[in-house]
Amino acid sequence: MPRILTYNVHRCVGTDKKLDVERIVEVIASFEPDIVALQELDVRRTRTDMVDQAHEIALGLEMAVHFHPAMKVEEELYGDAILTRYPERLVQAAPLPGHSYLSGILEPRGALWVAVDVDGTQLQIINTHLGLVAREKENQANAIAGEAWTGHPRFRKPGILLGDFNAAIGSRPYKALARKMRDARTLIHGPKQVTSTFPSRFAIFEIDHIFVTPGVTVTALFAPQSPLIRTASDHLPLIMDFDLS
Predict the structure, then answer these.
(1) Distance CA 143, CA 230 (A)
(2) Which DSSP string do the residues of 107-160 spell out, in sequence order?
(3) How confident is the model at residue 208 (pLDDT cuts 50, 70, 90)?
(4) What residues does each domain of the chain span?
(5) pLDDT of residue 191
(6) Is the confidence at residue 101, as pLDDT, over 60?
(7) Residue 150's closest CA among 187, 111, 108?
């Protein structure tokens, strides 16, 4: 049964203020995921010792990786990645719209789309990290729900959209995406586990989400907690087990 994990790793700086890429690898590896979506990765940035975090985490997990820099400052990059053990190919990596009046002030955001071959089935995966300002988030969610992303002809079922949306359940950005795809939380039968992911020390907010199309059967969804996980990043990972039918 495949397992997918989404995780805002906070540039591998934990709640103890320590930079520790190996700690992030340890957290992820302990759950043995097949596909991993990461947000807030630094690549060759001075503030994080010039490490290519996307490459180092992929190396530690023995996975292929696609990285999309939402922000570039000369040679320094910052963005999101998809890693997997399965055969994969990059479909699209592009910026998302921001706020018309705050262009150049807010942190740039983007999305990354990879097609993964899961035992002969092509699974479409989109990873994203939306902004913090309400109008900005709504513009970005509408873009992802539109014809360039989940509405694109190449985004055929089955598909998964996941990441850090900075949007609570019931918010306008969340609703824009939930009209397009199903929140995995709504597809769990029986007792539901905790899926709050932020802040990691006392997670009360559900702002990291996994949305799925028909053809993805959700069998488990949970946000694990332990002293190590609560320290490694300011978010908890969100993990989904699923079948493809």
Answers:
(1) 32
(2) PP-EEEEEEEEETTEEEEEEEEE--SSHHHHHHHHHHHHSTTTTTSTT-PSSEE
(3) very high
(4) 3-244
(5) 77
(6) no
(7) 111
